[in-house]
Structures are given as C-alpha cells and as structure tokens.
Design brief:
By secondary structure, the chain is an alpha+beta fold. It has one domain (11-263): Transferase(Phosphotransferase), domain 1 (Orthogonal Bundle), CATH 1.10.510.10. It contains eight helices and 13 strands. One of its GO terms (molecular function) is ATP binding.
C-alpha cells in the first residue's frame, strides 16, 4: 500500500530504458492521455470526509449509483482485482481519522459498524493511476497481497472500486516502527534482535515466492498490539522470476544514497 507510513518521504519510480523496465501498454497510454486533461473535481471521498461527523455512513456515500458512472471501460480496466461491490444495507463505514497521505494514496482509519471492527482503508484515485501509468503496478499490488499468508505480513481484507477511486481494506495497526522508535528514543537490544529476526523471516518468505518488496523502511513496518511486526505497503512490489532482475529505480528518496538517487547507480 503505497504511502501508508506515518512519516512519509517522497516516493519515486523512474523506469529505465533497459529491457525489463515498465511495459508501456498502448491502451494504457490512451487512457492516460484521455484523463490527463481532466481538472480537479469534487470526489466522493471528499464528500465522505466532510460528512463524517459522528455518524455511520453507508458505502453509498462514497460513490454515486453505478447507473451514473460515465464509461464502462473506466470500470473494466481495474477488474478483476477491484470488483464492483453491491451496496449492502447493513454495511456502514465510519471514518475515525486520517492515518497517512502519500503520493500513491490516502489511508483512512475506519470503523465497520456492522462488524464492530476497525480497519485501514487505502483510497487511490483512478485518474492518478492512469495519469502516472501505474495500472499494472496497482493491480499487481493486490494480486501479490492476496497470495501472501504470513504472520508478519499486513493482511489484506477486501478490495473494491467506486466511480473515481479504488479501495483497499486491511487490518488496522495503531503504530509503525518509525513512530515507535521516535517515541521511545532507543530500542533495547532484545527488541532489536526480535524485530530483525521477524523482518528477515518475512523477507525470506517473500523472496522464496519470487516477490521483491522494494520499499522496506521503518514507516512500512507496522507493530501490532502484541509487539510483532507486520510488513505493509506493497505498492512498489513485484514478481521477479529467479535469475532475473528489475531495472526500475524506486523507493523513498530519503532512504537512498545521494549517488543512487541522482543517477540510479
């Protein structure tokens, strides 16, 4: 989930010209050009945010009815990873707060009033996905998370699409490793050993599946109520067959060496 850390650096992704870089699909470029001229518009998310107050809001508040949607292709592009969910009368989501806002989306803390459970929902603008030519990346993020089952990975709950936004719902963790470190100042050695062991275990698990995360940082490592790590934000992750390599420079600028950030070396 791109941009879910509490202290966000600027994320960057620059496709190199080498073989193996991002694939520029013609029909994606066509949609990118079509929507590049669309100005700022009032989104369902903005209305959802303004109306939050102290009330539970039906999912209908997020988007207008499907009959008012502009073009079927704007739905089909994001299928099947982002299905269209029928409006269920009992399903209500109440915004409890803003978790983070990054270049790839906004993360909200929400209460599912029907389940009486708290979740984190990442909201991504469809137009931005097409303008930045990250449709393949966005769908692969969901595909990867659906196939991961590990105690130290932030679990994926549900995904769906609305008129203008994509929604990715996950379990909620109250803090991340960076915020915890900032609060306590210094971790005891026994905690560092535990954190390191859990992080190595989950990275080895991902690499055995041919998955590279590509944005491992303290902000993307959540801490659950029992003190265990949960690796999150698979927005830059991808499958990589054994023996191959990726040629895309990506990650968070503040965590890159100066030479790497400037030249990709």
């Amino acid at each position: 989930m791109g941009g879910v850390g509490c202290r966000q650096g600027q994320q960057t992704q620059v496709a190199a010209s080498h073989k193996g870089g991002n694939i520029q699909v013609p029909w994606v470029r066509g949609w990118k050009s079509l929507w590049s001229g669309v100005g700022t518009m009032r989104s369902g998310l903005e209305e959802f945010w303004e109306l939050q107050g102290h009330q539970c809001l039906h999912q209908e508040t997020l988007e207008k009815p499907l009959s008012e949607w502009p073009v079927p292709q704007f739905i089909d592009l994001f299928l099947p990873e982002f299905p269209i969910r029928p409006i269920r009368g009992q399903q209500q989501l109440k915004i409890l707060g803003l978790v983070a806002k990054g270049s790839f989306g906004t993360v909200l803390k929400v209460l599912d009033c029907a389940q009486k459970a708290v979740f984190a929902v990442k909201v991504v603008s469809k137009i931005k996905v097409l303008q930045k030519d990250t449709l393949r990346q966005c769908k692969e993020e969901v595909s990867i998370q659906r196939q991961i089952n590990h105690p130290f990975v932030h679990s994926l709950g549900d995904t769906w699409q609305g008129k203008r936004h994509l929604f990715i719902m996950c379990s909620y963790c109250s803090t991340d490793l960076y915020s915890l470190w900032s609060a306590v100042g210094c971790f005891p050695e026994v905690s560092v050993r535990l954190f390191a062991a859990e992080l190595v275990l989950v990275l080895c698990y991902l690499h055995d599946l041919g998955i590279i995360h590509r944005d491992v940082k303290m902000e993307n490592v959540l801490v659950d109520e029992r003190g265990h790590l949960k690796l999150t934000d698979f927005g830059l992750s991808r499958y990589l067959p054994q023996g191959t390599r990726a040629y895309t420079i990506c990650g968070t600028l503040q965590y890159m060496g100066e030479r790497e950030a400037n030249t990709g070396g």
